[in-house]
Amino acid sequence: MSEYQYYEFQALDRPLSGDQREALRSVSSRARITATSFTNEYHWGDLRGNPRTLVERYFDAHLYVASWGTRRLMLRLPLQRLALRSVHPYGLGHHVETWATRTHLLLDLTSEDEGGDWVEGADVSLASVIGVREELATGDMRPLYLAWLSALSAREAEDDDEEGYQSSLEPPVPAGLGELTAPQSALADFLRVDTDLLAVAAQSSTAAPEPAARLIRKELARLVSALPDEEKDALLVRLALDPEPHLRSELVHRLRETSAPATAPGRRTAARLLDAAHTRRAERHGHAERDRLRARATRLTALAAESDVIWNQAEAHIASKRTSAYDAAVALLRDLREACAHTGHGVDFQQRLGLLRDTYRSRPGLIHRLDSHGLR
């Protein structure tokens, strides 16, 4: 597997100017640069610019994938849409970092897995996860909670600090963890969120609020009427002056605030969540093993019921005197031996196998194959 890195940047709120594109060209002469994007792949070498700096200056989203297991997503949102104080509880080491510039909030979400689940030529792009940026702007904190879960699993793998986990509380629990949106599901996959950890975390999550796009007119009218008149007047003035790109998401955020709360205080410790996930995983594996054994028993019982047919098929293969046919006959007899042992007819199988070996003892190729598979 060759070394591989993929960088993708997107400008969403406003296009890049000509001067900005020219400045970005100095960062990479090979990158695909448009008025809204910067994309490059490396099979050797590296990007000359610092991704954090590029996002701070030019872009609203950045995705990075490396063949050695690193996955990274960076998002930039105007401070009016998402405040640093609201995302700070979800930070966890270098896996979930947040900081603010004069005008924007930035999120840096990272997953590392040196075990290497990389598939060369895999389709990776921002398109599948970029929707979480708008969700965050409307007050949906599920993407940040997912990032925290990913970081918690990573920290457990890196540092077995039992005392720290016992004293560390989870951040506010967003509504709707049990019913993720498509971008959130893609983010969970991208950050390698443990499915068992997510399932136990979702047990304390209330139902997701109805998206504004699906609210009926009557309900929307009720929510809008609950806004102070001064705030409604200000929103209308802003709409009349300039169609700001985030005006709708800001309104949706405010409407959600006037209805049910989007999060509930986190009450569980990190240790409790991790222990519950381990228990669930063990139970799930136990159920899977029992299902596998039941399916095997059913298959073997059905196979034993067809023993005469299988013996005839095996002998037909042997009669052809072809090497490949010998292999097919041996495969049938191996399966039948297991089926007869399962149903208590092992002695009958051995007696019939002895007759078959006597009949074809002059076929050394067949006898050698039977011996090598324990069919004696």
Notes on the structure:
This protein has 16 helices and 9 strands. The chain has 376 residues and is α+β, with helices and mostly antiparallel strands. α14 packs across α16. The model has no long low-confidence stretch (mean pLDDT 87).
In brief:
By secondary structure, the protein is α+β, with helices and mostly antiparallel strands. 51% of the residues lie in helices and 12% in strands.
List keywords for this structure.
376 residues, alpha+beta, 51% helix, 12% strand, elongated
Could you tell me how far the N terminus lies from the C terminus, measured between alpha carbons in angstroms?
A: 45 Å
CA gyration radius, whole angstroms: 31 Å
The largest sheet, given as strand count, sense and whether it forms a barrel, is: 7 strands, antiparallel
Number of helices: 16
Shape: elongated
Low-confidence stretches: none
Q: SSE order in H/E notation?
A: EHEEHEEHEEHHHEHHHHHEHHHHH
Structural class: alpha+beta
- Classify the oligomer: single chain
Strand order of the largest sheet: 2-3-1-4-5-7-6
Q: What's the helical proportion of residues?
A: 40-55%
Count of distinct strands = 9
Strand content: 5-15%
Mean pLDDT: 87
Architecture blueprint of SSEs:
Blueprint: E1 5-10, H1 18-25, E2 32-33, E3 37-42, H2 51-57, E4 61-66, E5 70-78, H3 84-87, E6 96-100, E7 104-112, H4 131-137, H5 142-158, H6 162-167, E8 173-174, H7 182-190, H8 195-202, H9 217-225, H10 229-241, H11 247-258, E9 263-264, H12 270-305, H13 307-319, H14 323-343, H15 346-359, H16 364-372
Antiparallel strand pairs: 1-3, 1-4, 2-3, 4-5, 5-7, 6-7, 8-9
